[in-house]
Amino acid sequence: MGLLSKAAAGTPKLDEPSQGGLLKFISEKQQNNAEGAASPMEKAMMEKLYAGYAKYGIFQGLIIEALKYSAGEFTRRLSSMVSNFGSVEGLAPGRALVIFSTKEDGELIGKHLAKTVPGNNLFSFQADNPQEAFTLVKPFL
């Protein structure tokens, strides 16, 4: 059993949330944004953050930057590595957001992923809700 598989053992699965919070975010973005709407990347990011919140409640995130892979290849590789305990969303080219439960050791996972992929662990965080996480992740989009 690999290190990441051991970290995934015992990860709770919660029910999916209503999309009310996501729809509220998009509506507020449309009202506050001079361009009139949230960007497709912001919408995708909020969907992923709401899904993470639905699965884990309070959750952790890592932003990892690739050293030598194309953006799609990097994201697919990370997805396969964390599929047992988390999820991945592509950010700016060569960067990805990994979301997982607070029961996992975020520092250990970040170091292992950065070493294995290879990449740099740019930022790690813990968020109580998707809006807080979005605020933290937005500079990396």
Q: Could you characterize what this model shows?
A:
This protein is of the alpha+beta class. It has a single domain (19-140), classed as Alpha-Beta Plaits (2-Layer Sandwich). Helices cover 48% and strands 21% of the residues. It has 6 helices and 4 strands; from the N terminus they run αααβαββαβα. It has helices spanning 3-8, 20-32, 40-56, 71-82, 106-116, 130-137; strands at residues 59-66, 86-90, 95-101, 119-127. Strands 2-3-1-4 form a 4-stranded antiparallel β-sheet, sandwiched between helices. A hairpin with a 4-residue loop joins β2 (86-90) and β3 (95-101). The longest helix is centred in the middle third of the chain and has 17 residues, at 40-56.
Q: Helical content, roughly?
A: 40-55%
**What name does the CATH topology carry?**
Alpha-Beta Plaits
- Which structural class best describes the helix and strand composition? alpha+beta
- In sequence order, what are the helices and strands, one letter per element? HHHEHEEHEH
**Spatial ordering of strands, largest sheet:** 2-3-1-4
Name the shape in a single word: globular
User: Stretches where pLDDT falls below 50 for ≥5 residues?
Assistant: 10-19, 29-36
Distance between the termini: 34 Å
**Beta-strand percentage range:** 15-25%
Could you say how many structural domains there are in total? 1
CATH architecture: 2-Layer Sandwich
CATH level-1 class: Alpha Beta
Helical run tally: 6
Biggest pleated sheet: 4 strands, antiparallel
- Record field, number of beta strands: 4
Mean pLDDT: 78
As a whole number of angstroms, the C-alpha radius of gyration is 15 Å
